[in-house]
């Protein structure tokens, strides 16, 4: 049984949050989750993903519809529970949208985080795991990327919100030694829970590769556009470090345990596999594993795209005792299981009910 019991999870109805909650419940924690449904589906204020999580684990999740920008409401929810630690997933994350609406992104991600930190401090709860991103590294100066790689040379607003939050965390932990924080820099999360009952179902339009491949494979799009086939990589296409969302979830449990065991002040870890995979390699693997066809056309490079990005994840292995286990095959297989079980995402059941009268 964990020493800490109650974990407060922001953005819990979202993709990574919901998968992480499964791992937390299975590790024996109780979860209090909040979300404002900016990018997750709900049924009359209930988080559908979290209802599924309850079915998978057989354990309850205390859920509140709450916007981190609504500080009085956040304070009210926080006061109802004895919170031991917080995992902060809530953020908006669409790179293109962030360039169009910078105020919206800075307000949501930065003010939302400030509100959360202030409420935590007021309650004497200063243990935090923060969702950061490999995006803070900008265009890599060396590969694989270690945590000591410079940060901040970022070309988009979303990425800068993550960078500024990391800088703010440095300042708050320097000012008040009670803070005990781990910032996790995720590489490219993909896949779904092996049950196929929870997965990625954003309400905002997505642009990421794996969901796009699945849309083509299932027949909703005629082909995939590959953004650039003339990069200086093995096959000319972009390289990323894809990591199974369940591995990412276990990384959070490992981070919580590390915070429990030692007062770390502020530490940063990469969560990746350490392996690069090209766009063409991912498509091929997906086709093999799912026995589908993913037609594609190679077109122009996407503006601002990074050629190659993969992690050195040794620090998390050495200090958190965590390491990614799942293969690219498992990432494809699990994502596809979720997709074919839920072709319309979480709304499938509701749509079926309407169709059946
Ligand atoms: P997601 O959009 O599925 O989940 C985020 C959740 O936060 C959503 O359910 C959304 O409704 C909620 N939210 C947003 N603003 C909120 C607010 N003001 N108040 C309350 N809830 C709010 O995204 P995800 O992929 O699960 O990402 C989780 C975290 O991981 C984010 O911080 C994201 O920036 C970070 N991250 C994601 C990736 C990725 O590729 N998915 C990579 C690196 C880092
Ligand atoms: C992966 C590869 C594309 C779509 C995003 C965010 C970043 C971070 C990680 C949160 C690239 C290629 C893609 C398509 C393609 N997220 N591609 N056709 O670029 O690593 O970054 O996720 O913090 O902030 O920007 O991920 O999935 O968009 O692209 O050819 O239709 O697939 O060019 O090489 P990326 P991605």
- Trace the largest sheet across and list its strands: 5-2-1-6-7-8-13
Shape: globular
> Which stretches are poorly predicted, pLDDT < 50 over at least 5 residues?
350-357
Instruction: Give the % helix.
Output: 40-55%
Radius of gyration: 20 Å
Number of DSSP helical runs: 12
Query: pLDDT average, as an integer?
Result: 95
The description of the largest β-sheet is:
7 strands, parallel
Number-wise, the strands total: 15
Through-space gap between termini: 46 Å
Per DSSP, what share of the residues sits in E-state strands of 2 or more residues? 15-25%
| Bound ions, cofactors and other small molecules, one mention each | nicotinamide-adenine-dinucleotide, UDP-4-deoxy-4-formamido-beta-L-arabinopyranose
* Succession of helices and strands: EHEEEHEHEHHEHEEHEEEHEEHEHHH
- The structural class is alpha/beta
Quaternary state of this entry equals: single chain
Domain NAD(P)-binding: 8-334
Cofactor: NAD(+)
Family: Belongs to the NAD(P)-dependent epimerase/dehydratase family.
Keywords: Carbohydrate metabolism, Galactose metabolism, Isomerase, NAD
List the SSEs and their pairings:
Layout: E1 6-10, H1 15-26, E2 30-35, E3 42-43, E4 46-47, H2 48-57, E5 62-65, H3 71-79, E6 85-88, H4 95-100, H5 102-122, E7 127-133, H6 157-175, E8 180-186, E9 188-190, H7 209-217, E10 224-227, E11 239-240, E12 242-244, H8 245-261, E13 266-271, E14 277-278, H9 279-290, E15 296-299, H10 314-320, H11 328-341, H12 348-355
Parallel strand pairs: 1-2, 1-6, 2-5, 6-7, 7-8, 8-13, 9-12, 10-15
Antiparallel strand pairs: 3-4, 11-14
Helix pairs in contact: 1-2, 1-8, 3-5, 5-6, 7-9, 9-11
The chain binds nicotinamide-adenine-dinucleotide (NAD) and UDP-4-deoxy-4-formamido-beta-L-arabinopyranose.
């Amino acid at each position: 049984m964990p020493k800490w019991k109650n974990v407060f999870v922001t953005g819990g109805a979202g993709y990574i949050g919901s998968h992480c909650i499964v791992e937390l419940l299975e590790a024996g924690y109780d979860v209090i989750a909040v979300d404002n449904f900016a990018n997750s589906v709900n049924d009359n204020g209930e988080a559908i993903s979290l209802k599924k999580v309850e079915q998978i684990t057989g354990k309850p999740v205390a859920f509140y519809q709450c916007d981190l920008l609504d500080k009085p409401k956040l304070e009210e929810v926080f006061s109802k529970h004895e919170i031991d630690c917080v995992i902060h997933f809530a953020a908006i994350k669409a790179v293109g949208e962030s360039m169009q609406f910078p105020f919206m992104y800075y307000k949501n991600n930065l003010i939302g985080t400030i509100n959360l930190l202030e409420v935590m401090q007021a309650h004497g709860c200063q243990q935090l795991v923060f969702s950061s991103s490999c995006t803070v590294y900008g265009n890599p100066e060396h590969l694989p990327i270690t945590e000591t790689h410079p940060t901040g040379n970022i070309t988009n607003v979303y990425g800068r919100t993550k960078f500024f939050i990391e800088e703010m965390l440095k300042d708050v932990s320097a000012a008040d030694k009670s803070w005990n924080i781990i910032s996790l820099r995720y590489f490219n999360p993909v896949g779904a829970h092996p049950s196929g009952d929870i997965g990625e179902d954003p309400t905002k339009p997505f642009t990421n590769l794996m969901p796009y491949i699945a849309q083509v494979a299932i027949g909703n799009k005629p082909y995939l556009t590959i953004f650039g086939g003339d990069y200086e990589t093995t096959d000319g296409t972009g390289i990323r470090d894809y990591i199974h969302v369940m591995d990412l979830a276990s990384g959070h449990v490992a981070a919580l345990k590390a915070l429990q065991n030692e007062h770390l002040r502020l530490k940063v870890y990469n969560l990746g596999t350490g392996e690069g995979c090209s766009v063409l390699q991912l498509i091929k693997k997906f086709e093999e594993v799912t026995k589908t066809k993913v037609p594609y056309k190679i077109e122009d490079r996407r503006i601002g795209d990074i050629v190659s990005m993969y992690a050195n994840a040794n620090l998390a292995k050495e200090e958190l005792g965590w390491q990614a286990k799942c293969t690219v095959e498992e990432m494809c297989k699990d994502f596809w299981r979720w997709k074919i079980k839920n072709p319309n995402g979480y709304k499938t059941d509701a749509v079926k009910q309407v169709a059946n009268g």
